[in-house]
Specification:
Helix 1 packs across helix 2 and helix 1 crosses helix 7. The chain is mainly alpha-helical and 287 residues long. The two termini are 24 Å apart.
């Protein structure tokens, strides 16, 4: 895993991708810092990080588009898969390299709150919490990009697919504000969720009996909730999408609150997408 991590991180600095990512990120954050803090004489730096979250939509696809698709295109994927390395080591090594490049870039922006600190007051706790949330949010998006990169050998397709997936996550908050669901649609949505969970479990453990038992238990839970508290399913779709939204989870961090549940959520989100990446590669490996 360490060898993959070193090779991947080195490749970012021997190709234009790493410099493009760092350059555009620092340029955009510098522009917004100048406009929102320096020119306005405003010490609220967290609003800058809140505002520049949108650049993930454009930069993460650039960062991750070659992660695994390039291996397929260059026919080096088979060499990796037949090496003593586990698939998980390959996937995690590549994800870690992208995340470390993002972290290095993010650390450079620490100069902005330091400038504010030398010229006025700034809350270190609030800034630190926002940075932690910002990093976790970025890593979550990177895990999505790595997964989509594993599905294709075309880097352009990988970048467009990642952009589309991140765009859906981006507009999820807007979608939840416009969804008015009744009990019936809430129950149907809950059943679909159970089906997705069963699919992921079956993909992971490859045991249809265990997956079936989980599915039956899920359906029984829905049935029990329906008879005990039918109103639970009213507005269930919006409530779930709000809970699932990676951007809404970031709100607590940007407010200076270190939310453990959101940290667990982000780590789980990353784990699930890396696991899907491993399963995607494993499926092709043995086919």
């Amino acid at each position: 895993m360490i060898a993959i991590f070193k090779r991947e991180l080195k490749s970012y600095f021997t190709t234009p991708i790493g410099y493009v990512f760092m350059g555009v990120f620092l340029l955009m954050s510098g522009i917004f810092f100048s406009l929102m803090n320096l020119l306005q004489n405003d010490a609220e730096f967290t609003s800058v990080l809140n505002t520049i979250v949108f650049i993930f939509l454009f930069l993460v696809p650039i960062l991750t588009m070659r992660t695994l698709s390039e291996e397929k295109k260059n026919k080096t994927e088979q060499l990796l898969l037949t090496s003593p390395l586990r698939v998980w080591d390959i996937v995690f090594g590549k994800f870690l390299a992208s995340s470390v490049l993002f972290l290095i870039t993010l650390l450079v922006t620490f100069i902005y709150p330091l400038i504010i600190k030398f010229n006025g007051y700034i809350s270190p706790t609030e800034v630190l919490c926002t940075y932690i949330g910002f990093f976790l949010l970025g890593c979550s998006f990177i895990s999505v990009g790595v997964f989509i990169s594993s599905l294709t050998e075309n880097q352009i397709t990988s970048a467009i697919g990642t952009f589309g997936a991140l765009l859906i996550l981006w507009i999820m908050e807007w979608i939840t504000q416009n969804i008015q669901s009744g009990v019936k649609s809430g129950i149907i949505f809950a059943v679909i969720l159970i089906a997705i969970i069963v699919f992921i479990i079956n993909l992971t453990v490859k045991n249809p009996y265990f997956s079936g038992i989980v599915g039956i238990i899920g359906l029984l839970i829905i049935l029990v909730i329906y008879f005990i508290k039918k109103s639970f399913f009213e507005g269930f779709i919006a409530s779930f999408l709000n809970w699932f939204s990676v951007l809404i989870r970031f709100d607590s961090f940007s407010g200076g609150v270190f939310d453990i549940s959101s940290v667990v959520y982000y780590l789980s989100f990353i784990f699930v997408f890396l696991l899907l990446t491993v399963k995607s590669i494993d499926k092709k490996r043995w086919s």
